[in-house]
Amino acid sequence: MADDKDVLRDVWFGRIPTCFTLNQDEVTEREAEPYYLLLPRVSYLTLVTDKVKKHFLKVMKAEDVEEMWFEYEGTPLKWHYPIGVLFDLHASNTVLPWSITVHFKNFPDRDLLHCPSSSVIEAHFMSSIKEADALKHKSQVVNDMQKKDHKQLWMGLQNDKFDQFWAMNRKLMEYSTEDGGFRYIPFRIYQTMSDRPFIQKLFRPVSPEGNVHTLGDLLKEMYPTALPNDGEPKRYQVVIHGIEPLLETPLQWLSEHLSHPDNFLHICIIPTPTD
Amino acid sequence: MSSSVLDEQNFHHCCRLLLQQSEQLKDGWSWEAVQGSEEGYLRKTALRSVVTDSRPVWDHEGSSSESEPHTPCHTGLDQSGLVAPVDADSIEGDIDDEEDEGEDEGACTVSEGSSQVLQYEYHIVYSCSYCTPVLYFRASTLEGKSLSLEEVWSSVHPNFRLRLQNSPLNTITLQEHPLLGQPFFMLHPCRTEEFMRPVLQAAQDQHRPVNYVLSWLSVVGPVVGLDVPLKYSTQLHPTASLSSTKPD
């Protein structure tokens, strides 16, 4: 369907205008100007910020530079979460551009994973894809792929090549018609109200009786707090790629069209802003 | 248990059994629950005397560490377990050779390099994606300084290191703990089913009950210095220890 393919493109090409400012405690040889960048929602911070690093290194001495890390209003940003998820979770109802602070010292290793090279990002990305396929197809599709096919998925993401990525990813989105959908839906529900980083459990797209499960059904089972009580105003927003899909949307459709390149449906529950 | 996967209910059941035995053996495991739910994980801390030797793997060929036959953290477990499909005979044969029953401290007594006492914290968490347990751990010096991935690697016995390095997905990586959100090292679970299958099949053929978590732990634990005393299995089958030397 032409409309559905448009959704895939819109998801892939989503961008967040961001302003990177150097942490004022960093030692610089002269004043550092902020750096502006459009960040892809579906990529990872450490994959797309080489230019940011180069920009700030111009005003710093090598001995004052350790592993770069990012923070938003005091919260260290987890590079291994897709950029769009970080934004929706921490900054979605704020004025653009998104203001991120850049650090080169005091890496918070109790909060953040180290990211010494892009092969670490690749390993993490491929690990997510494999886990998603374990849920969708008992790993059959991903294990049938060759090493070069896996590489194509990674290169597609790294080089922002939609067609190259989807030529391979479409195989991971297939299912037999008699099943009516994937075996289980790969999803993660994020919230900032408790310490738990995310909720991820087994959930089928279709009930044993043959009823199609919706986004609302998923939340009712996994995080009922997110759902509004009858007659009460909405306390929380359920956000995927910066939008609030209708709760009646079939989960299988969401998984096929609004998943991230890692094949997971990342869902953010954020308190409704009180203006 | 007829399949080589573990559902969450069975995971909880195996953990409860393991906990009971741990209490009797004073092995230090506890169950940590996630606030307000039935979910949780097994936890244990241990001090480990480790030789932090950062020489690359190939320098270890012919070093004195390889001529130490009874180093508990590798004896009897130098099998193709973690990377390639496991031959049931090789696991059982190797475990039969294990003679250090009394030694349940994961002390790698390798004579080269400098020795350090480290604090390890091990978590056993259930993965619903792979239907297996997963081992997470972190390590720090006694002063509280966290170990880096390189330092953790250098404390893995060279025999295990070679195996793990050959297959990047079956190796030790830094991951976010799924329940706590903090960085932990993790042994990747995607090959667990492969090495557990022959173990479970053998147990089924011999009509022996098997504790999936315990068997799994006895394979993966020693790689990262977590020893599982044989008394766990002899306790389970007091008569089996007379008729057969095959532990669970």
Automatic annotation (TrEMBL), chain A:
GO biological process: apoptotic process; autophagosome assembly; autophagy of mitochondrion; cellular response to nitrogen starvation; immune system process; negative regulation of programmed cell death; piecemeal microautophagy of the nucleus
Topological category with respect to the lipid bilayer: Peripheral membrane protein
Molecular function as annotated in GO: Atg8-family ligase activity
Ranges of residues in domain Autophagy protein ATG5 UblB: 184-269
Gene3D superfamilies: 3.10.20.620, Autophagy protein Apg5, helix rich domain (1.10.246.190), Phosphatidylinositol 3-kinase Catalytic Subunit, Chain A, domain 1 (3.10.20.90)
Residue ranges constituting the Autophagy protein ATG5 alpha-helical bundle region domain according to the UniProt record: 120-174
Domain Autophagy protein ATG5 UblA, chain residue ranges per copy: 11-104
Keywords per UniProt: Acetylation, Apoptosis, Autophagy, Cytoplasm, Immunity, Isopeptide bond, Membrane, Ubl conjugation
One of the record's GO cellular component terms: mitochondria-associated endoplasmic reticulum membrane contact site
Subcellular location: Cytoplasm; Preautophagosomal structure membrane
Pfam families per UniProt: ATG5_HBR, ATG5_UblA, ATG5_UblB
PANTHER family recorded: AUTOPHAGY PROTEIN 5 (PTHR13040)
Protein function: Involved in autophagic vesicle formation.
Assembly description: Conjugated with ATG12. Forms a conjugate with ATG12. Part of the minor complex composed of 4 sets of ATG12-ATG5 and ATG16L1 (400 kDa); this complex interacts with ATG3 leading to disruption of ATG7 interaction and promotion of ATG8-like proteins lipidation. Forms an 800-kDa complex composed of ATG12-ATG5 and ATG16L2. The ATG12-ATG5 conjugate interacts with RAB33A; this interaction is bridged by ATG16L1 and promotes ATG12-ATG5-ATG16L1 complex recruitment to phagophores. Interacts with TECPR1; the interaction is direct and does not take place when ATG16L1 is associated with the ATG5-ATG12 conjugate.
Entry's family note: Belongs to the ATG5 family.
Name assigned to this protein: Autophagy protein 5
TrEMBL record, chain B:
Residues covered by region (Disordered): 55-81
The keyword Protein biosynthesis belongs to this UniProt entry's keyword annotation: no
The keyword Nucleus belongs to this UniProt entry's keyword annotation: no
Superkingdom, natural source: Eukaryota
Cellular component aspect of the GO annotation: cytosol
GO function terms (MF aspect): Atg12 conjugating enzyme activity
Gene Ontology terms: biological process: autophagosome assembly; autophagy of mitochondrion; protein modification by small protein conjugation
Biased amino acid composition, Basic and acidic residues: 56-71
Similarity annotation: Belongs to the ATG10 family.
Protein name as catalogued: Ubiquitin-like-conjugating enzyme ATG10
Organism: Larimichthys crocea
Organism placement in taxonomy: Eukaryota, Metazoa, Chordata, Craniata, Vertebrata
